[in-house]
């Protein structure tokens, strides 16, 4: 190939790749991104979450979080028509039946669509773009707040009846599976210190702003996973499993500013300044731009707390 032909060939390749990348950039605007969803499901409005992104130049993939369970990979998001799309995912904790099938469209900057559930029922949902959450460099902290007073449930409420939570000898206890416990006060950015204990085989968690679950589970000795203790459920995997044995008192020190979280389990940093992509299963709502309460999971297994201290970011 002559120098002139090689130059023309190189120029044509550059123009072609530039056109492809330009096309991808244009295609990225409408559907790609993270979306906070609300779905009408079994007579209630439940929070959900969707991420759509490119894999290579032409394929769209994603992740989906339902009202329960962990983040689920979406192998392919098919697009057609005027900003319309569809995808399907296998069931996770849902009843036996078909795959869950989603149809959606972007209308006036918002998503709307339907989910065909495993039992064939059709459920409608809407979605807005997940907000950017501001991060504060060199934060200054306010005074610590003893959210649990060591005496009673003042400052807390449950999400259902009956309430199995009790305070005995200064210990906040859920002796059996039942209601989740929620703070009356809401918080935006904070440091959290908790001291907790669980019996063998138990499972619980703490929801930050009522939306992002930091897992608590009897996982000592297991390889670290995002669904095990120290992880942000289904999203962020701890660097190590720093759990103590069941029956021992353990500590979490968690800092959340914007979407960036640091988790220290029993004095060991296991997640450091990582971004939480979206809500986790079991969240109270999907309104990520708003302050939210703490929620202690009580609908799985027994759990005890002897300290629950929140230090808000100074305004």
From TrEMBL:
InterPro entries: AL/BT2_dom. Gene3D superfamilies: Exo-inulinase, domain 1. It comes from the Bacteria. One of its GO terms (molecular function) is hydrolase activity. Residues 1-25 form the signal peptide. It holds the Pfam family 3keto-disac_hyd. Keywords: Signal. The keyword Signal applies. The keyword Signal applies. Residues 144-309 form the 3-keto-alpha-glucoside-1,2-lyase/3-keto-2-hydroxy-glucal hydratase domain. This is 3-keto-alpha-glucoside-1,2-lyase/3-keto-2-hydroxy-glucal hydratase domain-containing protein. It comes from Flagellimonas olearia.
